[in-house]
């Protein structure tokens, strides 16, 4: 594969990104066409672990715009967005920021898990994806999909395949099956050629639906 057809991803790209693009373009006809269309952008990590997960809880089941509005009001309540500071907040103040009673409970549980070292942040680098998912889904309000998005966007794990992600399902349907609905087994079949870079392929499938990079 000639290097000239690989996208220019810039210095902020994960170290595996160019290798992943080369692998995907060589093995997958859709990726061969899709990847060169989206040069200059790539996956980038955002914020710290606690803030990233807190934002994911705040944003559940509401629009991106509404989530940002609630987050902006919530984020000014603690002196600093740390688990210990969130645990000092009054429930009434959190509710007044626009959080539902359930999301307040979820955020408190998240803060407790971090404050009590029930998540092993310092060990994540040595832990496999499933072990990290198991830790995260033990927190109220965090399901497998949220944990998988965390693996992709925060920990930058290269080989995550989020089977329950609607964007991935719709993108594979459009790109590989002429718009026909796809099953989980069909997604796995397509992704068999992507490994060990399913996260990268998923990111480009998202780009096929929306060229603007996903922010999580």
Automatic annotation (TrEMBL):
Assigned EC number: 3.2.2.21
SUPFAM superfamilies xref list: DNA-glycosylase (SSF48150)
Catalysed transformations (reactions): Hydrolysis of alkylated DNA, releasing 3-methyladenine, 3-methylguanine, 7-methylguanine and 7-methyladenine
Molecular function terms, GO-annotated: alkylated DNA binding; DNA-3-methyladenine glycosylase activity; DNA-7-methylguanine glycosylase activity
UniProt-listed InterPro entries: Alkylbase_DNA_Glycosylase/TA (IPR051912), DNA_glycosylase (IPR011257), HhH-GPD_domain (IPR003265)
GO cellular-component term (any): cytoplasm
Gene3D superfamilies recorded: 1.10.1670.40, Hypothetical protein, domain 2
Protein known as: DNA-3-methyladenine glycosylase II
Species per Swiss-Prot/TrEMBL record: Hydrogenophaga taeniospiralis CCUG 15921
